[in-house]
Amino acid sequence: MFTATSDWMWHGGFQPAYFGPEVLQPPSPSQSATAQFRPHCLPAALERKPLQECACLWAEGLCQVLVVLLSLCEGLWAAPRPKPLDPRAEFDSIVNLARNLLSDTKNLFNHFKNRYPAEGEHKLETLPVLSMNAVELANIQVSGGLARLSSDLQCYQRHFEWLRKAAPLLRPMEHDIGTVHNRLDRLLKRLEHLMTKLSLSRPNDPLPTLPAHGTHWSVVQAGHAIVHSFHLYLDWAARVLVLIRNKL
Questions:
Q1: Distance between CA 79 and CA 60 in Å, rounded?
Q2: Within 10-141, where are the H helices?
Q3: pLDDT band at 191 (very low <50, low <70, confident <90, very high)
Q4: How far is CA 237 from CA 26, 85, 121, 132, 147, in A?
Q5: DSSP letters for 133-189
Q6: Could you tell me the pLDDT band of residue 36, with boundaries at 50, 70 and 90?
Q7: How crowded is the C-beta side of 236, counted as CA atoms within 13 Å?
Q8: DSSP 186-219
Q9: Which of these ranges, 10-19, 117-126, 197-206, has the smallest mean pLDDT?
Q10: What is the pLDDT of residue 181?
């Protein structure tokens, strides 16, 4: 009796596969040993699937994987790389900080004069001395100019620490002195950070030794000298910073 069974298999589309009597009958002796051991439950459509087509499918899948990998690599190559920081931009920030500090110091200087009027010129030998003429200022170099600024600002920092500790004797001026001192610390740290980025050595000059706080009047005289000197120095330092910035 002839029996036919149909099934749907994926082989270049859905194709009907028929299993005739030869599938159900035992293999004849003339068939090869490989054919004798062929499982009869396997559809003939899969047996007839050529090896070349399997290789093509494998190659197509590999190509798709390669395309995905290449697209990922392209996205990485196209990603914007961070640009190196321009030292001139950081210099502009330092110049603005110095100008703001100059404005705060000017206010402190005026308030100090109004609160403690004192005639005459007050000096301290431990303060930096401005001895640079116009020619030296025009020929100032980056490394030497920044080293000079760093050394002088460290000296003024020590003087304002001394003045801040004398706040009980200058109680109405505590806030203004503290504001200038804090902004001076910020300026000095920014300047030292810039020197490190430019691979410049920082100065290691010895800091001055200041006397103990004496009478109220001696602290007032020292305060006049420190604030007035720092006011003049910052006006000079702001111009020096602009000249150095233009040489970068």
A1: 29
A2: 21-24, 33-36, 44-47, 51-78, 87-115, 134-138
A3: very high
A4: 107, 24, 22, 11, 12
A5: -HHHHHT--HHHHHHHHHHHHHHHHHHHHHHHHTGGGGGGGHHHHHHHHHHHHHHHH
A6: very low
A7: 22
A8: HHHHHHHHHHHHTT-PPP-PPPPPPPPP--HHHH
A9: 10-19
A10: 95
What CATH architecture does domain 88-246 belong to? Up-down Bundle (1.20)
pLDDT class for 66, splitting at 50, 70, 90? low
Paired tokens of 185: 């610390």
Cross-strand bridge partners of residue 16: 8
CA 28 to chain centre: 82
* pLDDT of the residue at 214: 81
Q: CATH 1.20.1250.10 in the chain, residues?
A: 88-246
| Spatial distance between the Cα atoms of 66 and 230, rounded to a whole number of angstroms | 68
Sequence-ordered list of residues with C-beta below 8 angstroms from that of 46, at least 6 positions apart, any chain: 9, 11
Q: Which residue has the higher pLDDT, 84 or 148?
A: 148
Residue 146, phi-psi category: left (phi > 0), alpha (psi -120 to 50), beta (remainder) = alpha
Distance CA 61, CA 53 (A): 12
